From TrEMBL:
Organism, scientific name: Anoxybacteroides amylolyticum
Name under which the protein is recorded: Pyridoxamine 5'-phosphate oxidase family protein
Pfam families, sorted: Pyridox_ox_2
UniProt-listed InterPro entries: Pyridox_Oxase-rel, Split_barrel_FMN-bd
Superkingdom classification of source: Bacteria
Gene3D superfamilies on file: Electron Transport, Fmn-binding Protein, Chain A
Length: 185
């Protein structure tokens, strides 16, 4: 594994990382399709120490994963841009997490159903009156006739970086460098 270039930005707080993964809305699944990288944005859920996603049983993502199950899953949130009178010191408040691991199709119907329920709980909390049924997960087909599969990404390595947002430096529409130069004098 590579050393982080700016270790002072590393986040090693597992509780904070888990909370971030539990609330972030979009993750990016990176796979290696031969010599060509392929990255797909996905809804996901962080549950029981793994990332779960779902999708069609067919398609490029699934074909690549059949050949190479090693993946990188990245989640990042931009909290704001922080200004500075020196252009090169303009910065970003953010948090990002990268998980390196393997992806596999979940074959256990109970686990697949619970993972799908966790996705529903995250993205549409309280919308449905009853829990998702195993029968629905097992028999549902898309409008194109595809079966839905649940993928489990088991991380072998997790790295995280963060740059806290300095509220006094946050850019807003109408803010000018002259405002900040006056404040610093």
């Amino acid at each position: 594994m590579y050393e982080m270039r700016r270790p002072m930005l590393a986040c090693t707080d597992e509780t904070k990382i888990s909370a971030f993964l539990s609330t972030a809305m979009t993750g990016y699944l990176g796979v290696a399709d031969g010599l060509e990288p392929y990255v797909v944005p996905l809804n996901f859920v962080w549950w029981n120490g793994a990332v779960y996603v779902h999708g069609a049983e067919e398609g490029r993502k699934m074909e690549v994963l059949k050949r190479n199950a090693r993946v990188c899953f990245t989640v990042s949130e931009h909290f704001g841009t922080m200004v500075h009178p020196v252009p090169a010191k303009t910065d970003t408040g953010y948090m990002s997490v990268m998980l390196f691991g393997t992806a596999e199709i979940v074959t256990d119907l109970d686990e697949a159903t619970e993972a799908m329920q966790q996705l529903l709980n995250k993205y549409v909390p309280g919308y449905f009156f009853a829990p998702l049924s195993k029968h629905h997960v097992e028999t549902y087909r898309s409008s194109m006739g595809s079966r839905t599969v649940v993928l489990k990404i088991t991380p072998h390595t997790i790295t995280a970086k963060e740059k806290p947002l300095n509220e006094e430096k946050v850019f807003y529409a109408g803010r000018k460098v002259t405002d900040d130069i006056v404040k610093e004098k």
